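dumping this here before i forget
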Amino acid sequence: MFKPTLRLAILAIAGVTILLAGCAAPAPQIVPQTVVVPQTVTVPQTVVVEKAVAPTAAPAPAPRTINVLVGSGQGTAVDAAFVPSVIRIRANDTIQWKVTGDEIHTVSFNPPPAAMQPVVPIPGGGPTDLMLPPELGFATRAPGAPVEKFSGTGYVNSGILSKQPAAPGAPPNDTFALTFDKPGAYKFVCLIHPYMDGVVVVEPATDTTVPSQADIDAQAKADQADLDAQVKAATDWSKNPQSAPGPNNTTLWSVNVGINVGDPSAALYDFGPKTLTVKAGDTVNWFSYEFHTVTFNPNSTPDDFIQPKPQGANKPPILALNPKILFPAKPSQTYDPTQYYNSGVLGQGLPGGDVFSLTFDKPGTYTYYCAVHVQLGMKGTIVVQPK
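structure:
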């Protein structure tokens, strides 16, 4: 009984073993593959950030004082011009104009119509009581006041500039300064010689292209040379007398009063010819295009043309014009050496007109002058020979 049972047990165990063997999972296989695992890796580092810095602006050049000449020439050689006439500067620069010639001038910006009149009536005076406009004659800056600043508007005037003092013991008013604080182009003029003008071109304060004082001086020298050449040409031309046949075998002679050969700024303030020889019975005609006189005066001392008249405290004087010079005086057409003869101020629209005429019948030598410019040496001579 025992053996079959044992055998059955062994068989049963074997069966179970076989069954388990048949049901067991197959042996695992290794398959190589790449697996991407997303991750964030922190790497310690130092980052240098460069900050842009705006460039530092160059400082504006320091304000300058630029010197410019007003008129030039000596004696009767009158260069009525600003040299140079065009001046380029920077904003906040100052220009100082200085008279170097013997003639009077002004430096004037934006003049009103009243300042542009050559003569005006004296308030409350008679028909021959005339004066220079006060707007022309006197500076807009009060004596002792600081230099004016100009931005392009308003009237600014130097007053009459001259190397000669206005009164004995007074300092000459021969310079004028003005500061320009705004870029722009500004025209200026001499009120005594309206064809004498110039322009100030004001650049920004940082401009570095404006000319130096040496550059301006060089331009002035070149301009002066051109003016001097024209005055020399006028002088040479004036030496040639001009004449035409007159009635009864006489000659009509022409004398120019003030001479130029083109640019009126380059003028000879003289008589052309300075000495003229004629025959008894001949007639001399003097012609003038601007402010001159032909004056025969038996007295040796010429009269002053401008005669200042005080107006009281805190008022400028009246710049009265001598009526004896301003208006014509002609006792006769035939010259009498014992009498005072005067053309009056010659020029278009002026009391003397533009021509003055005298006939000479007595042999002799007769001197005359321009009563406005006699101090410059503007004198002439008529030599009368027997017929």
